[in-house]
Write a structure and sequence with these properties.
This protein has 128 residues and is an alpha+beta fold. It is built from 6 helices and 5 strands.
Length: 128
């Protein structure tokens, strides 16, 4: 998970998922998002999103991040097999199973224009 091939498959799935790229395009969402494992010094993979669509993805190589999401490998695997909903992600965040080393979870989850696509991004992971 989060290696070069996986991240590029995630990019393709993200860009074709109804309610994800198009919804984020409507709010001109631009971000570089890192994904990795709790305790690692840096994320494993990243995506670069421009106007809602992922324009590049791959192994993390020092890109400046707007978001850095971390969880244990077991937790990521669990979400990949059964994507969480809003409540599940809220519990994961408050119990420390999902960490944001960069980015403001609270501000994002309170904005329905971002919260819905954020939840959907986990469902996309389950397709990889």
């Amino acid at each position: 998970m989060f290696n070069e091939e996986w991240m590029n498959n995630y990019k393709d799935a993200w860009n074709t998922e109804p309610g994800l790229a198009d919804a984020l395009q409507q709010i001109n969402f631009n971000s570089v998002i890192g994904y990795g494992f709790t305790g690692d010094a840096q994320p494993t993979g990243y995506i670069s999103v421009e106007n809602g669509h992922v324009v590049s993805a791959g192994n993390y190589n020092g890109e400046a991040l707007n978001w850095d999401l971390r969880a244990s490998s077991d937790q990521w695997a669990k979400w990949a097999s059964k994507p969480p909903g809003m409540m599940g992600l809220g519990v994961a965040y408050t119990t420390g199973k999902l960490k944001f080393l960069v980015g403001d979870y609270g501000a994002m989850i309170k904005d329905p224009r971002m919260a819905g696509p954020f939840i959907k991004s986990f469902a996309v992971m389950a397709k990889i």
